[in-house]
Amino acid sequence: MSLEEVDIMKLLYIAPTKINMKKLDGVAKKITAQAKVFSNVYDVILLYRDDENVVLYRVNEGRFVKLGSGKSKFDILRAVFDVIIQEKIDFSYIRYPNSDPLFLSLLKRMKEKGIRVVIEIPTYPYDEEGKESIKGRIIHLVDVCFRIKMYKYIERIVTYSNDDVIFGVNTIRTVNGLDFERVQESNYSCVDRNIHMCGVATFHQIHGYDRLIEGINHYYKNGGKRDITFDVVGYGDNEILHEYQKMVKTYQLENRVVFHGRLDGTELDDMYDKAAIGVNSLAIHRQNLENESTLKTREYAAKGLLILSSSFIDAFDENDNSKYVCRVPADDTPIDIERAIRFYDELYNNEDIGSLRRQIRTKARAVCDMSVTLQPVIDFWNK
Questions:
Q1: Beta strands in the chain (DSSP E)
Q2: pLDDT tens digit string along 133-173?
Q3: What is the rounded distance in angstroms from the CA atom of residue 24 to the CA atom of residue 178?
Q4: Are the C-beta atoms of 121 and 166 separated by less than 8 Å?
Q5: Chain segment 285-294, per-residue pLDDT in tens
Q6: What is the spatial distance between Cα 60 and Cα 40, in angstroms, rounded to a whole number?
Q7: Of 367, 219, 184, 192, nearest to 293 (Cα)?
Q8: Cα-based torsion angle of the residue sequence 67, 69, 73, 77 in order, rounded to the nearest 10 degrees
Q9: From CA 73, how far away is CA 115, in angstroms rounded?
């Protein structure tokens, strides 16, 4: 559908987060990819902040306008009031920033102006997130008090969970999407029987990399012979990172588990080219979650990697989960490395490597390319 066919309806995408357009992280890649897909149908304005300013990005024109200083999500939300006065906005897509009086006031004002609002909640349920600190508990308490009033002002909530209703609002159920055009297929080649695993994350307890480190330690304590390497890429909760590093030192696995910090661009591509298996979250049960819809699993799949996970990977359908995903128990037991080896050997011994990579990428693209995952939202607005 072209812009002309919908009379160039205008969409305001509110992303109350920091984005560095020159060095996109995972969340920023997702937001900009979503804006790009929406721009195929609507005239899109993306509102976000950089290091110093609130920025209005006219996606269809490729033009950036600085609206003033901005250090927090509140600066972005305040800027929205001016934008909806100056622009004729038909729809608004909002990445959920937690509820508070300012956010509710903004939603009310948008409804008064006839703007049809859809909110995306990236993780649901999310009540266990961020409660480790006093500030996090206060934010959560305020959110609980005000989120139950959102139903008055918004039309749908986009969720990657199985919920039909959230906070009294009907949902649009979809899966997390990825712009596959941005991701090149891996050049991994199975030249030996060594198994390289790669975990890319912003560290939280749900990633559960301690389970894999424990599993590698058990494997070698019990006479394991295969060369297993786990490359850890990312940053995040320093306490969790230090816990991983301490375990590696205690078990003398420095040559098996390697911490690379944050990698981007060609450095990250080079890391993926060495990996046969991408490590997804191994401990979502620690936040009482049964399912998740992570960006990293899409990137693994787009690269053509097999995946190690304690949960179903919604980048694939049921049959492809059975083939390309090594499921491990959703508990705190060490990962069974022998099981992972059998999984690896079965596929890499029986499949042409290039063909396997392309199979994985093609199967995932049909399910979770951004153009597929956002179509239900576009269909809802265009009814």
A1: 10-18, 43-49, 53-58, 63-69, 91-95, 116-121, 156-159, 165-166, 169-173, 195-203, 228-236, 257-261, 277-279, 306-309, 325-327
A2: 888 899 999 999 999 999 999 999 999 999 999 999 999 99
A3: 14
A4: yes
A5: 998 888 888 8
A6: 8
A7: 367
A8: -40
A9: 21
